[in-house]
Automatic annotation (TrEMBL):
<dbReference type="GO" id="GO:0050660">
    <property type="term" value="F:flavin adenine dinucleotide binding"/>
</dbReference>
<feature type="domain" description="Acyl-CoA oxidase/dehydrogenase middle">
    <location>
        <begin position="131"/>
        <end position="208"/>
    </location>
</feature>
<dbReference type="GO" id="GO:0003995">
    <property type="term" value="F:acyl-CoA dehydrogenase activity"/>
</dbReference>
<feature type="domain" description="Acyl-CoA dehydrogenase/oxidase C-terminal">
    <location>
        <begin position="238"/>
        <end position="385"/>
    </location>
</feature>
<dbReference type="Pfam" id="PF00441">
    <property type="entry name" value="Acyl-CoA_dh_1"/>
</dbReference>
<comment type="similarity">
    <text>Belongs to the acyl-CoA dehydrogenase family.</text>
</comment>
<dbReference type="InterPro" id="IPR050741">
    <property type="entry name" value="Acyl-CoA_dehydrogenase"/>
</dbReference>
<dbReference type="InterPro" id="IPR036250">
    <property type="entry name" value="AcylCo_DH-like_C"/>
</dbReference>
<dbReference type="GO" id="GO:0005737">
    <property type="term" value="C:cytoplasm"/>
</dbReference>
<dbReference type="Pfam" id="PF02770">
    <property type="entry name" value="Acyl-CoA_dh_M"/>
</dbReference>
<dbReference type="InterPro" id="IPR013786">
    <property type="entry name" value="AcylCoA_DH/ox_N"/>
</dbReference>
<comment type="subunit">
    <text>Homodimer.</text>
</comment>
<protein>
    <submittedName>
        <fullName>Acyl-CoA dehydrogenase</fullName>
    </submittedName>
</protein>
<dbReference type="Pfam" id="PF02771">
    <property type="entry name" value="Acyl-CoA_dh_N"/>
</dbReference>
<dbReference type="InterPro" id="IPR006091">
    <property type="entry name" value="Acyl-CoA_Oxase/DH_mid-dom"/>
</dbReference>
<dbReference type="GO" id="GO:0033539">
    <property type="term" value="P:fatty acid beta-oxidation using acyl-CoA dehydrogenase"/>
</dbReference>
<feature type="domain" description="Acyl-CoA dehydrogenase/oxidase N-terminal">
    <location>
        <begin position="15"/>
        <end position="127"/>
    </location>
</feature>
Length: 396
């Protein structure tokens, strides 16, 4: 690895896991990057199953969750997930991809023993995929970056809840065995664990999007009189936003981890190209216009890594860390966009082809600037905090 990752604060156990993940992704997963089962809507289910089976044999399936069900710390998880991201297929193979990783974290934190046995266990074992149903179509006026606009409703009918609405950008809905569905009751937001497939949940279409790393792609979904047993509500009616934050703050950070790994790999490829390719009598790297771009990449990669570990340390203190995760999401996504763009530029025509993963990483990271909240929404949230803090200081 030409970029040196910081291993401070890591247990020997975590570093051993991280080393095994890196070796597996580089040696076993990377050759699959040319596999025709990589589609525009993500790797096919049979490719994902094959990769997970390889990870199981290598002892790196769901590596951040230990045999006793406990998790590595957020800092240690970063060491593992960054390395899983060294290939766009790595998180899928190691069973640490979104949305499954975030859904496993949520269920592990707040799920009942029954829900954990029914849903979490097969997810950890790599036998079930999941989807998180929160975002709604803009044309309906539904919830996007502002979840308070949620239009999907739920009402009690005997010992069941009945859910109606439409959802969009639902990653992995096609082929998932679990859906975590958010809807609004008279009490407020609610969250439900739903068995999939269910005839009441109809996939209208899987959209063509700029990214292509997540199995099942991103779907528009209609929910028509879905009946869910009351025992499958997470928490109580009206507590949905509280549980959403339990999931979303760490999930923003794990996105940063995985895509940092992808950009490290893209930078390796671009650096190798610049050292091997000659133009105007010398290697490209010796031209300042190219060499300086690669130097800027190292700076951005290191700053992104520092933000990831800083936010991970905050989460490890037990603080929810919504402010910190917003700052990390903005800083890391913007830095990685610059890195990916420079990698394409350094490689010229080769950078826009599918001959290497550089082109895909560029597309994935461009989408990352929007997924889990666009940069502008996180900055707006931070600006509101600045205003609240100023008022509090001056009112006292």
């Amino acid at each position: 690895m030409t970029f040196s990752l910081d291993n401070s604060g890591m247990s020997t156990r975590a570093l051993e896991i991280a080393d095994r993940v890196e070796a597996f992704v580089r040696n076993t997963v990377a050759p699959y990057e040319k596999d025709p089962r990589r589609t525009s809507h993500g790797p096919s289910d049979d490719l994902a199953v094959e990769l997970k089976e390889a990870a199981r044999k290598a002892g790196v399936l769901t590596p951040h969750i230990l045999e006793d069900g406990s998790h590595l710390s957020h800092r240690e998880t970063a060491a593992v997930l960054i390395r899983s991201g060294l290939s766009p297929l790595g998180p899928v193979a190691c069973n640490v991809a979104a949305p499954d990783e975030g859904n496993m974290y949520l269920l592990g934190k707040v799920g009942s023993p029954e829900l954990k046995e029914r849903f979490l266990t097969p997810m950890v074992q790599g036998k079930m995929r999941s989807a998180f149903f929160m975002t709604e179509p803009a044309e309906d006026g539904g919830a996007g970056s502002d979840p308070s606009m949620m239009l999907t409703t739920c009402r009690m009918d005997g010992n069941h809840w009945v859910i109606n609405g439409r959802k969009t950008y639902i990653t992995g809905a096609e082929g998932a065995g679990l859906g975590i569905v958010m809807a609004k009751s008279d009490d407020g937001a609610c969250m439900f664990m739903v068995d999939l497939p269910d005839p009441a949940i109809r996939i209208e279409r899987v959209m063509d999007t700029i990214d292509s790393s997540m199995p099942g792609g991103h779907a528009v979904v209609t929910i028509d009189n879905l009946r869910v047993p009351a025992t499958q509500m997470l928490g109580q009616s009206g507590e949905g936003f509280k549980y959403a934050q339990v999931r979303l703050s760490p999930a923003r950070l794990t996105h940063c981890m995985r895509w940092l790994g992808s950009c490290i790999r893209a930078n390796e490829i671009a650096s190798d190209y610049a050292n091997r390719r000659n133009a105007f009598g010398k290697p490209l790297v010796d031209h300042e216009g190219v060499g300086f771009m690669l130097a800027d990449n190292l700076i951005d990669l290191k700053q992104a890594e520092l933000m990831v570990y800083w936010c991970a340390d905050v989460l490890d203190t037990g603080v929810l860390g919504t402010v910190e995760s917003s700052m990390a999401k903005v800083a890391v996504s913007e830095a990685l966009m610059r890195v990916a763009d420079r990698c394409v530029q350094v490689m010229g025509g080769q950078g826009v082809t599918g001959d290497t993963i550089v082109e895909q990483v560029f597309r994935e990271v461009r989408a990352f600037r929007i997924y889990d909240g666009p940069t502008e929404v996180h900055k707006w949230s931070l600006a509101k905090k600045i205003k609240r803090d100023w008022r509090k200081a001056h009112e006292s």
